[in-house]
Amino acid sequence: MNKSWMPVAAGIIDILSGASSIIISGYTIVNLPLGAANAETFFLGAVLVFIAGVLAIVGGVYAFRMKKWYFALTGAITASVALVLISLPLSWEYGGNLAPFLIVILGIATIILTVLARKQFERR
Predict the structure, then answer these.
(1) Which of 28, 64, 102, 110 could, after both became Cys, cross-link 11 (CB 3.0–4.6 A)?
(2) Where are the domains of the chain?
(3) Phi and psi torsions of 54, nearest 5°
């Protein structure tokens, strides 16, 4: 059975979540109020989301190319962490909306797809 779609799908989700993490963290850094009491906390959180986004993109590229499974798994884990960090403010702002829950499910799916496709990485 041809299962080559799994790492490709995981790579695409990783790259999309990494790109959205970078965009959202950049937006947060640019729009920080300078005199706010918790501006440093928001800046640190935005930097962590930016780093997670970069790692997710790198891991997504490795998953898409089906090379170096450990890098692809690291990218899937950081993509799911970045997706969780993005979805938390959404759930706080919209009060229990279903979208953050679906975003977390998408992050877990990337990890599952990457783990299930491990044999395809070893063949190459």
Answers:
(1) 64
(2) 5-123
(3) -65, -45
